[in-house]
Amino acid sequence: MQIDLNSIEEGMPDKKSYDSIWKKVIDPEIKAYEQEYPSQLKRIPYAKSAIWDKYEELNKYCKQQYMMHQNERIDRHKVAACYMIAIAYVSPMRFDTSIIQGSKKHYIVNELLAITVGLSILRAFILAAIDASEIKNESKITLKNRIMSGLMTPDGKFVHHGEYALNYANELYYSVKDGKCCILSIAHELYLLELFSLYIGNDKALATDIADVL
Fold first, then answer.
1. Percent of the chain with pLDDT over 70
2. Closest by alpha carbon to 2, among 101, 120, 134?
């Protein structure tokens, strides 16, 4: 899904851009889960403001702890990571465990939402970076086509247990639960997914242009 991030500067928390992310990604995804679990799942009434407040807190923490100068922008991977952790921490969807039936993924729906949001934000930033780069037009077209339908994740045959997305969601869930969720770790994983998506196979001809975009 494409997000309009024209009004946001990479690394800067911007309420207007968050309103767009909420409208185009977060709210529709929560509604989809509400339809999937109509009697078991409820969203918390203050979800939108709670996610923004937590994101802003994480963004400031990231600058204070990891940047040499606090007025510097954080990169797109850390921005997406802050949103993901904020959503997982707030848990905007809650289940009535006394009546839950069927799917075993019910306890990680917030983390699955976080992944969808994080990858959507990252994809929008990558597309903007490709457009702003000085690489040749042919390379721009090739790279944009590779992520137009979303970032790639490892195929199931490369995952030892279950699906990659579910494993990633479990990682988020237990990291938050254990109080050990690291912005830098999530950001690094997002960077690797970006590289994996752009550098398919051994396309050495595009390697230099990809490096310019990264």
1. 79
2. 120
